[in-house]
Amino acid sequence: MRRLRALLRDVSGKAAMINAGVGFIIVLMARTIAGMLQDAIPGVSGGAEGSPASELNTLFNNLLNIGTGVALALCALFIAWGAFLYMTAEGNPARMERG
Questions:
Q1: I need a surface site. Which of 14, 15, 23, 97 has the fewest CB within 10 A?
Q2: What is the mean pLDDT of residues 20-26?
Q3: 0.70 cut: is pTM over it?
């Protein structure tokens, strides 16, 4: 918890917004790549209901949906936090660029 407080105290607005934007892009790319890999595995997408491949496919989809939602919510939160820090830097370039 102490490390998280130190991280939030030392981060600058611009760096937080850039990192959150990069994280957002990574999440979207991971979701796309995972979907392509899932379609490439033979027998997974067209497996019989109740088969191990079908159950694994359902579990993977559920985890991917939950993980994507959480990651995108965190990205939005960090973008808002970075904007707040950037706006409250009071024109101090060091506070805007630091991070």
A1: 97
A2: 82
A3: no
